Amino acid sequence: MLNKQTVAFLGAGNMAEAMISGLVESNKIPSEQIIVSNRSNRGRLQELQAKYDVTAITKDELKFEEIDMLILAMKPKDIDPVLESIKDLVNPDTVILSVLAGITTGHMEEGLPQGQKVIRVMPNTSSMMRESATAIAAGKHTKVEDMTTAQELLECIGEVYTINEEKMDIFTGIAGSGPAYFYYLMEHIEKAGKDSGLEPEVARQIGAQTILGAAKMIMERDETPAQLRENVTSPNGTTAAGLDALAKFGGGEAIAQAVKGAEKRSKEISSQFKKVLVAN
Questions:
Q1: CA nearest 127: which of 5, 26, 263?
Q2: Segment 223-242, tens digit of pLDDT
Q3: What pTM does this model have?
Q4: Which CATH number describes the domain made up of 178-260?
Q5: What's the CATH superfamily of 2-168?
């Protein structure tokens, strides 16, 4: 049961905060059983403790033997020093969850004790609103019950999708990086509204509500996105004019390339760490 689990974060950045916020808001885990740590930035830890009433300590103060789920949330480039520093401390029964883009379960297993249970996780920052799209993929030593517990935990911050690990890069391109694409779209919607005389805050709210409504239509109706688009596009109408402009300026291709660009970078990160493993 989640309310008996002790969950610790190694890393106190934006993703860790987004997940902590969602977990606390869910009320599924007592806040005192959520621990956040980093190497030395006590100011950041004090900020998170004051904001979410969680336990905030430095990494050296962690009691690894008491942790049920350890979430690695530092920068991907720091993974190897972190694995080296915890491999003699981590409890064999602890499930390691990594939210690091491009870092495979195999790479983590190489740096941890033999048989350590590892789950690769890709949430997004909508965790803060409990609306994340989160993927999970099991390592080779992970048991079904470990995945079930991890899924229950991550459902506190949104929807969870169990996928094969080789699909994690494309998931990262769509969902892990996806919120930024919509924020970028909103920036331009807001600017267009402002340029035509709307107050920026009003344009922002109109755009956000429009995106929210469209997303709900996709989630709750049977039509495909293409069918929904066709349903609102009258010949020679305003929507058709807008879509023509999108096509003319490469809007569709830009969206596809954004997803593929993030996917490519995730694969590049994985490749870099594979080369390190081979070299060693």
A1: 26
A2: 999 999 999 999 999 999 99
A3: 0.89
A4: 1.10.3730.10
A5: NAD(P)-binding Rossmann-like Domain (3.40.50.720)
